[in-house]
Amino acid sequence: MHVFESLPEFRAWRKTVEGTVGFVPTMGSLHEGHLSLVRLVRARCNTVVVSIFVNPSQFAPTEDLAAYPRDLARDLDLLAAEGVDGVLAPGEDVAFYPDGFSTWVEVDGLTSRLEGASRPTHFRGVATIVAKLFHVVQPDVAVFGQKDAQQALVIRRMVRDLDFDIDLVLGPTIREPDGLAMSSRNAYLDPHERAAAAVLRRALDRAEALYEQGERNASNLKAGMMEVLDAEPLAETNYVSIADTDTLEELGAIKDRALVSLAVRIGLPRLIDNCILPPGGSLYDDERRPHVARS
User: Fold this and answer.
1) What is the phi/psi pair of residue 155, to 5°?
2) E-strand spans in 12-154?
C-alpha cells in the first residue's frame, strides 16, 4: 500500500495507475462503515484509493475540529488489511488551503435545509474539498455512505452540475447491534450517552412502523418519532424531517419516496441518522442518478 503526504507525490503515482480507479474520501478515525465502502469500490475497480483528511473548512468555529478523533497509524493498518492500493493523507490544511485561498464550490438549495440550516458554511466546505479531491484523484467511481444523506445529495448535484465524469455509488448505513449508526463521533459518548444514542434508530423504526401501518401524513409520522425521542432524557432533538429525496423540501404527505432524517445532540456530539420510506430504499436508487456504475 502506498501512502502519500503530498499532492505532487500522489499525482506522480496516479499517472502510473492503469485500469479503473475507485475512491473513498474520509476524515479518518475509520470504522466498519468506512471499510464497507472500501469493499464496495474494490468490487468495482482495479485500484482503490482512500483519502484521510480532516477538512477544516467544513467545521464552524464552534465545532470540534481540534477534538476530532485522529489515529492515522490505526487507519493505515485497517486500510492495508482491506488491500487498499493508495492512501492520500496530506497535512491538516497546507496542501489544500494555501495562503490566500479564496475559491469555493457552493451548491444552492440543497445546502440551506436540514444540516445547512444550523451549519451554514458546512456544505460549502464539503463540496469544495470533494471537488478538489476529485481533481487530484481522478476516480472513475466514488463511494459515499447513506448515513450522510444530505451530503450524498449535495455531491450528486455537484457531479451533475460540474460535469464530473464519475460514477457515484452509495453504500448503506452500517449499524451497531443496537441500531446506532456507526460514526467517528460516537467515540465522544460516555457509557450512559452511548446507551441513550440508540434512540435515534428507535425513532426511525417508529416512522417505518407507522408507514407500514398505512400512515402517510408527515406531521403524524414526525409526531410518532418525537414521542420516542422525548422519552429519552439525554436526547436534545435538533430536527426531525420528512423530505423529498431529490430537493429536500419538506413534505406534507408521502406520495412516492421520502427521506426521513433527524439530528439529535446527546452529550457532546450531535448525531444524525436517516432512512428511506418506503423502507429499504437508497437515495441513489432512482432514474435521476447522473451515472450508471460501470461493470
Assistant:
1) -65, -40
2) 21-26, 47-52, 86-88, 141-145
pTM of the model: 0.92
| CA gap 119, 124 in Å, rounded | 10
Place of cell 451515472: 291
Answer yes or no: are the C-beta atoms of 84 and 50 closer than 8 Å: yes
Evaluate if residue 63 carries a pLDDT over 70.
yes
Q: What residues are paired with 239 via a beta bridge?
A: 263
- Which triple of cell numbers denotes residue 5? 503526504
99: its cell numbers: 495562503
The contacts of residue 264 (CB under 8 Å, 6+ apart) are: 199, 200, 229, 235, 236, 237, 238, 270, 271, 272
Q: Decide if 34 is catalytic.
A: yes
* Domains of the chain, each with CATH number or no CATH: 2-171 (3.40.50.620), 184-277 (3.30.1300.10)
Q: Spot the catalytic one: 2, 31, 34, 135.
A: 34
Digit-coded pLDDT (tens) for 103-160: 999 999 999 999 999 888 999 999 999 999 999 999 999 999 999 999 999 999 999 9
CB 125 within 8 A of CB 158: no
CA distances from 248 to 56, 118, 150, 217 (A): 26, 15, 8, 17
